[in-house]
Every structure is written in C-alpha cells, then in structure tokens.
UniProtKB/TrEMBL annotation:
Alphabetical UniProt keywords: Nucleus, rRNA processing
Compositional bias of kind Basic and acidic residues: 329-341
Predominant localisation class: nucleus
Protein name in UniProt: Ribosomal RNA processing protein 1B
GO biological process: rRNA processing
Subcellular localization(s) per the UniProt record: Nucleus
Organism: Sesamum angolense
Highest taxon listed in the record's lineage: Eukaryota
C-alpha cells in the first residue's frame, strides 16, 4: 500500500490576507505551523516576483529566514528547511537570486557572533548547502564566465574582503573549508578562464587579507589539496593506472598540473598590493606548483584535458525513466508459473520437516543409549571407590589395635619396644612440617625406619615455656606507705603476681 501524500493544512486566517513583506515577521514565530505556512507563501511570492527588491527588503527577508532556522529543532526539520531555502535560491530570477545570495552572506556575518554552540551545526550545514547550490546554479547557467564572476565577486567583496565592521569571520572560514569539497561534487569545465574566475577570490585573499586564520584556511583546505591531487594524478599516469576522466579528483589534479597556477602565484607575490606578511606564503606556494609542473614536463607523460559535457556530468539530474507497456497475458502466465513454483516449494519444505522429525527421533534414541552407558560406568566407579574406602578403614582399625597392644606392654621407650617400627599418630594438633604417613601408605612404615618417624612425632608435641617475667610474685616493702597513695596503672601487677602480697594498687 502506497502512502498518500499529506495534504497541506488550510492557511491560517491572518496569513491568508498577508502578502509580500507582511509575511516576513511571521517567519520568526514560535509556532511551527505559522512558520511553515508563511515560508510557503513567501516562496510562491518570490518565485513570481520579477522586480528587484531593495537592500532593506532583502535584509528583512533574510533576518526572518535566519530566525526561522533558529527556531527549527531536531535534525530532520532542519534539513527539510535548509533544502527549501536552497531550492528557493535556485528558483529565483537571475537579478533577484544575486541579491538573495548577497543578503545570505551579510545576514549570516551580522548574526554570527550571537549563535550559541548548540545551534552552530545547523548554520554550518546551511553554508555548505548554499555553496553547493551556487555551483548547481552555475551548471544551470552553462558556466557562463560573466555570471560566475558576478556571484564570486559578491563572495569576495561582501564576504572575504568586506570593509564593514561585522565580526562574522566564522562564515568566511566555513566557506573556505567546504569550497573544494563541494566543487568536487559538481562537474566543471577545465578551462583557464573558468578556473581563474573560480579561484579568483582566494588569490585576492592571499594578496590583501590581513586575517591570518583565513589565510591559513585557504592555504591548507584549497591550494595544499590541489598540490596533493596533482601529485597523485602524476603518479598514476607514470605507473600506467587508468583513471576516469569524469572523476572529480582527476579534474582538480588537472587544474594543479595544466592551468599555470605557479605563474598566477608569482604575479600575486610580486604585486605591490600584496601584504608583506603574506608574500612568504604566496611564494612558497609558487615554488610547489612550479616544481609540480616541472615534474610533469620531465616525466614525458601527456595528460589531456577532457571536454566538458553538461549532459554527461549531470545526466542523473535530468534523466527521465522509460515507460514500458505491460503485457497482461504474459503477466498472467508468469503468475501461474509462480503459483506452481510456490506449491512445489511448499511440498519440498514439508518433506524436509518430516525428514527432520525422523532424524530427530534417531538422535534422541542415540542420546538415551549414551546416557545409559555413562550411568553404568559411573556406578562401577562408585563401587570401586567404596572398596577403596573399606580397605582404608580396615587399615586404620589395625593401626589402633597395634597402638593398644603397645600401651598394654608398658614399654618405657620406643627403641626397646617390639613395635618400635609402628608410627604413633597423635590425635591432637599436628604441625605443618610434620611428615605424618597417610593410612594408605602404611606398608612403607612397617618395613622402613620407624624410629625416625617416632622422633618426628615427638618433636611435633606442644612445648610449654616458663618465663620469670610473666610469673613474678610481688611483695610489699616495709614500712608500708599511706593507704591513700596510688600507683600508676603501668606499675600495677597483673596475673599471677597477685598471688601473694598487698591488694592491687597499693605499695
């Protein structure tokens, strides 16, 4: 079942009567429905507007769009709103779209310091998508050099090298970071005049920008990447590895190798307008690109420039699906064969289940037999263990009888006794180091040296030590001191010292 597309909600009464600039204030509403409907009305109004709007109207419009995205929560809603804004940019008239792009840059740079870290990501994404939409617009305009120069001139004069006092340098940093990535996604003609216009704002930054962070961003994210792609392309051509002519990395590698960027850097570095602090960076890039071009000449590899074809690069955008007529008779026969195959598959599955049931019964029987065999073996083992226990008890009884006979004989010493070889096991506490023979090893004691075993048993007996300091008897001195005199607790006698003498605590 295909889901039916949602029908748009009816317009709110106060929006139905509002037209044009009156809708801008509703873009910043806290109500999602109000924002969505006002944006829809603005899209239809701007798409049909042929006259050029004033700068103040464009700034008001973009301030409302800025806070419309500000209030958008959750990623799916933010993505949908950003896509609507980029589609609006692509659908505008040429003169209006240029002013729309200028208002985008100025508004973001003005409002950038007030964006908190939780909302920063969606505005980063807005910048990335607008840079991509700019290249898509250039593709639709067939990469006309004049039109391309107008839009990139706005990027240079109102963005990178703007003379106003706005503190939105983060917008310039983000544009420089994503510019080359988004250019890869759109096929462009590798021609010197087009390449000079595309990279023109960045050469101006290398010449006249005082922002060292922006200078580093342009160098690392743009020109260093071009050098890297040029080296990779040259290495592939030397080894004979084939590469796709429409590959974005190959196109940018061709720009680094064949578009004479080393000469352009030399012009920028030797210009009187170049800032002295930037000249060292510019001339270093000149050396890198010059070395790359010399390596291409010395290698003897010929790298051709592919011809640009708009249909080939962007065929996916304009592709129309082919409609194939349906043959109902053939479809019926196919359905009959499918049903027959389904019945055969069901029958095979039933047979497999029955076979599995038979195999399962056999496996259960085998498991039962194994369990019976294991139980029989375990019973035999338990019986053997019982026999072993009986043998040990008999030996213990014999030992006790020998001890009884020895005591009756009243032997004075173990050496004179007839049973001197018999070890006497004490029933009291045994020491850890005593080598007492286990009952199962009695045979070795009858034939071995019994005297040594007896001496070891005697040594294991508990010894009582007597010390004078623990058994002192304290006697009072004469004459006795007064009764009120008390001794300190440390001198008070304890234990057996109180057997004789005066009471505790008196001298």
């Amino acid at each position: 079942m295909k889901k039916r597309p949602r029908e748009p909600k009816p317009l709110l009464p106060f929006l139905a009567s509002a037209t044009g600039p009156a809708l801008i204030k509703h873009l910043a509403s806290c109500n999602t429905t109000v924002r969505s409907q006002s944006l829809r009305l603005l899209q239809s109004w701007l798409a049909s507007e042929s006259q050029q709007l004033s700068d103040s109207d464009i700034k008001k419009l973009w301030k409302g769009l800025f806070y419309c995205l500000w209030h958008a929560d959750k990623t799916p809603n933010q993505l949908a709103l950003i896509n609507r804004l980029t589609n609006l940019f692509l659908s505008l008239q040429p003169s209006l779209s240029l002013e729309f792009f200028r208002g985008f840059l100025v508004t973001l740079r003005r409002e950038w310091p007030g964006i908190d870290r939780l909302r920063l990501d969606k505005f980063y994404l807005l910048i990335r998508r607008f840079v991509k939409a700019l290249f898509e617009l250039m593709r639709l305009r067939k990469w006309d050099v004049d039109v391309l120069g107008e839009y990139l001139g706005v990027l240079e004069n109102d963005g990178f090298l703007a003379e106003d006092k706005l503190q939105g340098n983060g917008v310039n940093y983000q544009v420089a970071s994503v510019f080359l990535d988004e250019l890869k996604g759109v096929g462009f003609p590798v021609r010197k005049e087009v390449v000079d216009v595309i990279f023109g704002p960045f050469f101006s930054v290398m010449m006249r920008s005082k922002d060292k962070i922006l200078l580093g961003k342009v160098k690392s994210c743009l020109f260093d990447e071009l050098v890297k792609l040029g080296k990779e392309l040259l290495a592939k051509k030397r080894t004979g590895v084939d590469s796709d002519e429409k590959d974005a990395d190959m196109l940018l590698g061709l720009v680094a190798l064949r578009m004479g960027l080393s000469g352009r850097f030399y012009e920028v570095g030797s210009s009187t307008d170049c800032i002295q602090g930037n000249r060292k960076v510019v001339l270093a890039l000149h050396e890198e690109f010059l070395k790359l071009e010399k390596d291409l000449e010395s290698s003897g590899v010929e790298i051709g420039i592919p011809e640009y074809s708009d249909a080939g690069d962007c065929g996916d955008h304009d592709e129309v699906p082919q409609l194939i007529p349906i043959d109902y008779d053939a479809s019926k026969s196919n359905e009959e064969t499918r049903t027959q195959e389904g019945a055969d598959n069901a029958f095979k599955k039933k047979n497999k289940k029955a076979k599995k049931g038979v195999d399962g019964d056999d496996k259960k029987r085998k498991k039962k037999k194994k369990r019976k065999n294991e139980n029989g073996v375990s019973k035999d083992n338990s019986a053997a263990e019982e026999n072993v226990d009986l043998n040990e008890t008999v030996i213990l009884n014999l030992q006790k009888q020998f001890e009884k006979v020895a005591t009756e004989m009243g032997s004075e010493s173990d050496e004179d006794s007839d049973f001197s070889d018999t070890p006497i096991v004490s029933k009291r506490k045994r020491t850890k180091g005593a080598d007492v023979q286990q009952p199962g090893n009695l045979n070795t004691n009858w034939t071995g040296d019994g005297g040594d075993a007896a001496r070891k048993v005697e040594k294991s007996a508990k010894k009582v030590r007597f010390a004078m300091k623990n058994n002192l008897v304290w006697k009072p001195q004469t004459p006795l001191p007064p009764e009120s005199l008390r001794l300190p607790p440390s001198v008070t006698p304890r234990g057996s010292a109180l057997k004789k003498g005066s009471p505790q605590g008196l001298l």
